Amino acid sequence: MSNYSIAIHGGAGTILKNVMTPEKEHAYSQALKEAIEAGEFILKNGGTAIDAVEIAVRSMEDNPLFNAGKGAVFTNLGKNEMDASIMDGNDLSAGAVAGISNIKNPISLAKAVMKKSEHVFLVGNGALDFAKEMNAQFEDDAYFFVQMRQDQLNQAKESDGMFLDHTSTDKFENGEKKFGTVGAVALDVHGNLAAATSTGGMTNKKYGRVGDSPIIGAGTYANNDTCAISCTGHGELFIRSVTAYDVSCLMEYKELSLKDACNEVVHNKLVKIGGEGGLIAIDNKGNIELSFNSDGMYRAKKSSTSELFIGIYK
Amino acid sequence: MSNYSIAIHGGAGTILKNVMTPEKEHAYSQALKEAIEAGEFILKNGGTAIDAVEIAVRSMEDNPLFNAGKGAVFTNLGKNEMDASIMDGNDLSAGAVAGISNIKNPISLAKAVMKKSEHVFLVGNGALDFAKEMNAQFEDDAYFFVQMRQDQLNQAKESDGMFLDHTSTDKFENGEKKFGTVGAVALDVHGNLAAATSTGGMTNKKYGRVGDSPIIGAGTYANNDTCAISCTGHGELFIRSVTAYDVSCLMEYKELSLKDACNEVVHNKLVKIGGEGGLIAIDNKGNIELSFNSDGMYRAKKSSTSELFIGIYK
How far is residue B13 from each of residues A184, A287, B249, measured CA to CA in Å? Predict the structure, then answer.
C-alpha cells in the first residue's frame, strides 16, 4: 500500500458567495491550501496519518482566519477558551483538551495527552498544569488578539447573543453563520487513519460550555477498520448524535459505504434533529467525503491519486 | 404499555467476598436497595424515566459509600472534582457537567443543563456560574469530607499513584480495585428510556482529568429506539470505545438483542482493549442487563414484573 489521502475543513455554516469579497475568498483558499499541503508533505514522505492531521490543524490554528488557536473567538469574559481532540485509528488511542487558554496549538497538547499521559481528556487549569510539564508553547493574550473577534464579541454582547463563530444576524458579519472549527483526517501509506479537530468555541459563550470538538465519538473519531472523521457544526446536536462514531458504526455494523454512511448521518439523522454543519471523512481505502447540510464549508482534499480540491460554497 | 424497569450500579472492580465484612456488605446492599426503591417509586406512580434515574443517582450521591457526591474521592489537591451526565431517550436531549466542586447533586445540575440551558456540556467554574443562576444546592468542603477518602488520598500520595476509587495494591483497601461511579437506567410506563451517571473520579488525580462518566456516548446514552446505558470502569478505555453508544449501534444497525450487544461490548470489545468495568442496560421492551468483566459490580434491578435483585460479586 502506498496510497495516501488527506482532507481538511475550516468550519461550516452560512457561507454565501454574495457576501464574500474576492480578497477574503482568496485568503481562505490560500490558507486551506497551505494547511493541506503541510499535511500532504508528511504523508508523501512516508510519515504517519497522526502527524499529518496534527500539522494540518496546526497550520489552521496559526492562521487568524479560523476560529482555533490564533483567531479563536472570545468568551463573555473576553478570553479564548479552546478545545481540541485527536485520535489514532491504528490503536484507538486518543487525546483531548477543553477549556484551555494561552496554548498556541491546542491540537499538539491533545496529542501530548494521547502520547504522554495515561489519560484521554484533560480540562481547564489542570490541562494547563499538564501543558507546563510537557513544555507546551504558551502565548500571551496579545498573540491571540484579533480585532475582528473583539468586534464580534462587542456585537454579540449588544444583542446578548451567543454565537457559533458567526451566527446569522443582520448586524453580524453580513448575515454569515459559521461554525468555526478546524479539522483534518488522513490515511497514510502504512494504512493508518487519524482524525483531529480544534476550535475556539462560541463568541460570547458563558458557563464553560464545551461543544463536540474535544469529544471522542462526537467531533472526532478514527478506526483503521472503518474511517476517520472530523466534524464541524452545532456542537450540542453533534454530541447528542454521537456523530463521528455513528459514521463508523454505520460502516462496521450496517456495511454502508463511506459515502452512504456520511449521507445518512449528515443529510438525514442530523437534519432530523436540527443539527446544522458537516464533516470530513476518509475510509481505509482512501475514499474521501466532504459532507455538509449548511450553505457552505471551508474544505479541501488531496490524495496520492487525485488533484487538490478546494471548496467553500455548496 | 404499563410496564417499567429500573437498574442501578454503584461501581465495578476488584470487589471480592473474602475482603468484604458482613457489615460493609449489608451497608452496600441497603444503600443499593434505597436507591433503586427511590427510582422505582417514581416509575410505579407513572413518573418519567428521566426523573427516576435522577432520583436513584441522587440517593447514591448522598451516600458516602459511593464515589459520587458526598463520598467523592479527593484529587491531588485535596478537592472533590465531580462529573455527571444524563440523557433522555425520548428526544435525545442530554446534559453533562465535569470538573465541578461543592455541588451536592451533580446529576441534578446535569439535568438542569439539559432542561434549562441551550447547551449539553458545561465544565469547571463556568458550570458553577450556571449552577448559581439555577440556585443549585451547594455544600461546603466539610459536607463532602469522608475520612476514608482522606486516608485513600494519603496512601495514594505515598505511593505516587492515581487510583480509580480503590486501585488494587496491598496497602490499599485490602486489595480492592473499584471504579467508583454510580449510575441508573430506566424504562417508564410511557415507553421512555433514560440514563444517568455520576462520579467523583480518581483518587489523587491531577491535570483536570475527565473520564467517561460525563461523556454522552461513552459513559451514558439513551434512545427510545434501542436502549439506555450507564457505564462504570476504566474511563479512558470507555471513551476510546464510545462504549454506551456502541451497545445502541449494535442493536440498531446489527439487530443484536440487548443481551448480545452487551456481551459483545463488555466481554469482547472492552476486554480486547483492556477496558475493565461494566455497564447496566435496559431496552425499550424492559429487558435488563447487568454486564461486567471485573470481579464484581455493585448493582440492583427491579421491574414491574420481577422481584428486586441486588448483587455485588460475580
Answer: 37, 42, 26
Q: What is the ipTM of this complex?
A: 0.94
**Which residues in chain A are closer than 8 Å to B245, comparing Cβ atoms?**
217, 242, 245-246, 249
pTM: 0.95
Is A225 in CB contact (< 8 Å) with chain B?
A: no
Helices A106-116 and A124-133: angle between axes, nearest 10 degrees: 70
Rounded-to-integer distance, Cα A296 and Cα A10, Å: 11
Residue ranges and CATH numbers for the domains of chain A are: 5-204+213-313 (3.60.20.30)
| pLDDT values of chain A reduced to their tens digit, one per residue, 314 residues | 579 999 999 999 888 888 889 999 999 999 999 999 999 999 999 999 999 999 999 999 999 999 999 989 888 888 889 999 999 999 999 999 999 999 999 999 999 999 999 999 999 999 999 999 999 999 999 999 888 888 888 888 887 666 665 444 433 444 445 678 999 999 999 999 999 999 998 888 888 999 999 999 999 999 999 999 999 999 999 999 999 999 999 999 999 999 999 999 999 999 999 999 999 999 999 999 999 999 999 999 999 999 999 999 99
Interface with B, mutate which of A113, A163, A207 (most B CBs under 10 A): A207
Instruction: Looking at the complex, report in whole angstroms how far the Cα of residue B206 sits from the nearest Cα belonging to chain A.
Output: 7
Of A92, A216, A236, the CB nearest to B273: A92
The dihedral region occupied by B197, where left means phi > 0, alpha psi between -120 and 50, and beta the remainder, is beta
Task: List all residues 6 or more positions away from B223 whose beta carbon is below 8 Å from its beta carbon.
Answer: B89, B92, B193, B248, B252
Query: Using CB atoms within 10 A of its CB, is residue B189 exposed (0-12), middle (13-18) or buried (19+)?
Result: middle
Q: With an 8 Å Cβ cutoff, is B249 touching chain A?
A: yes
SS3 B290: strand
Does A89 touch chain B if contact means CB atoms closer than 8 Å? no
**Angle B136-B138-B139 from CA coordinates, rounded to 5°:** 155
The rounded distance, in Å, linking the Cα atoms of A167 and A11 is: 12
Distant-in-sequence, close-in-space partners of A115: CB < 8 Å, separation ≥ 6: A93, A95
Write the DSSP string, B72-105: PPP-TTS---EEEEEEETTTTEEEEEEEE-SBS-
Mind giving me the DSSP string for B122-139? EEHHHHHHHHHHTTPPB-
Give B127's contacts in chain A (Cβ within 8 Å): 207-208
Q: Are B170 and B92 in contact (CB under 8 A)?
A: no
Is B245 touching A (CB cutoff 8 A)? yes
Active site residue B181: yes
